[in-house]
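User: I'm putting together notes for a lab meeting next week and I want to include a structural view of one of the chains we've been expressing. I don't have a solved structure, so I'd like a prediction I can at least talk through. The sequence is below, exactly as it appears in our construct file.
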Amino acid sequence: MKGKRVLITGAAGFLGSHLCDKFIDKGFHVIGMDNLITGDLSNISHLFNREEFEFYHHDITTFIHVPGDIDYILHFASPASPIDYLKIPIQTLKVGALGTHNCLGLAKAKGARILVASTSEVYGDPLVHPQTEEYWGNVNPVGPRGVYDEAKRFMESITMAYHTYHKVETRIVRIFNTYGPRMRLNDGRALPAFIGQALRGERPDCFW
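Assistant: Thanks for the context. Below is the predicted structure for the 208-residue chain, given as structure tokens.
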């Protein structure tokens, strides 16, 4: 894989920053992109002196220009916690819709394979447990969480449209709960809250 180039959006976020590390370790040239609305430069500052890494401070809801070849695109840009997407609902919708459209257009232009990061929230308030890929979900499009759920559902739809109409090589991954180094302990999600309480020596809420 030596010499392959990968664009990672949301590069300064929790998952994106770990992906930057992993792909550099695997011998890729990594182009990180983030508008830093929820990402943190400290997550990738250790990579700034690496010649295999370059960073673009850019909002992907506007036109994306990256010179040179790109072999892969990993689209991980999006607010991912209730605290964030309830505070910035329009930006959340735009990155899932316009941002994904721009990433897919870039993949088409560069002949790159693209993976988009979706979420278990595409199932909404599910009526089926556990959820399978065949289950279509139970989403309230006008509820407070609808901005995140529907942005991701649109992301999946336009990704499939580019795959079937433009023959872009696409992948969709629906991510459930994640945790680990660099996560924000106050981001409003259950697992980070649980771990944060445990680290502070507090009794987790779920035990009351």
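A couple of points you could mention at the meeting. The chain has five helices and six strands. The two ends are 51 Å apart (CA to CA).

User: Perfect, that's what I needed.
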